[in-house]
Amino acid sequence: MAETKEETTEVAKPRDADQMGGFAKGLAVIEAFGQGRHALTIAEAARLSGLDRATTRRCLLTLVKAGYAATDGRYFELTPRILRLGHSYLAASMPRLIQPSLDQLADQLHQSCSASVLDGNEVVYIARATQHRLMGVGLHPGSRLPAYCTSMGRVLLAALPPEQARALMASSERQKLTSRTLTDLDELMGELDKVRAQGYAIIDQELELGSRSIAVPIRDLSRQTVAAFNVGVHAAHSTLERLQEEFLPHLLNAQAQLAEILP
Asked: How many domains are contained in the chain?
């Protein structure tokens, strides 16, 4: 019991010697990019992180070597790989907040609904409410699909700076999964412009023949896009007009409700 108590005390009150100052400094540099700037010089990152220039330079170059940042020699930018650092938190906490809304949507629309986050050039399912098994068989939390040809993927890509979205799609194989699948980068960027303007994405049999889906972003209290959710339907049973006129209002209502509770 004495050993257990001692171990608990050490965990609750860590000593300075137990802490990694370099790691904390690296985190401070990463957080500097979340203050309204996506590209920073060493001097700007140092000012925003509160570190000296030499330390900031070492942190930035370490991030570049690890693949979490890129540089043109003057400016530094975080790469999509940085999303992996937050994925564990999102995958653990967000589904519990989103699942009730998905269940309600599935009950209202009698269709399967899903939620996902972006990880590199793929979407990762974090929650799902299933009403039918004929389409999307095998999809479950943890499943991955390419972002370029999925409704949730396009919503999430559209929330990124255009150059970052283009780089992510350029890194994808962009296979023509059906005769309707868009693979050209310029055409896909045009679709993302449309998604940004209208606030939702519709995929019409690009991922799978006979499958249509409509997705909207999930935003937090600060109006930042943190995930996306969609409704998947049979093309034979639901027209594109039905997706927009009947399903979209329910998605937007759920979107507004989640924006009030997501931290």
From this structure: 2
- Considering the chain, what percentage of its residues have pLDDT values greater than 70? 85
Instruction: Report yes or no: 154 and 212 within 8 Å, Cβ to Cβ.
Output: no
Higher-pLDDT residue of 35 and 97 is: 97
Cα–Cα distance between 251 and 247 in angstroms, integer?
Answer: 6
pLDDT at 40 over 90: yes
Kindly state whether residues 156 and 189 are assigned to the same domain. Answer: yes
Both tokens of 216, joined, read: 């909207």
In CATH, what number is assigned to the domain containing residue 72? 1.10.10.10
Q: What average pLDDT does the segment 157-172 reach? A: 96
The radius of gyration of the chain from alpha carbons, rounded to an integer in Å, stands at: 21
Residues 95, 19: one domain?
no
Torsion (CA) 105, 109, 110, 113 in degrees, nearest 10: -40
What DSSP element (H or E) covers 5? Answer: helix 2-12
Same domain, 89 and 184: yes
146 in helix, strand or coil?
strand
What pLDDT, on a 0 to 100 scale, did the predictor assign at position 10? Answer: 45
Which of 56, 78, 100 corresponds to the end of one domain?
A: 78
The one-letter code for the residue type at 87 is H
Taking the model in full, what pTM does it have?
0.66
Residue 152 and residue 116 in contact, taking contact as beta carbons nearer than 8 Å: yes
Residue 246's SS3 state is helix
Co-location of 142 and 211 in the same domain: yes
Domain assignment of residue 130, given as a range: 83-259
Q: Is 202 helix (H, G, I), strand (E, B) or coil?
A: strand
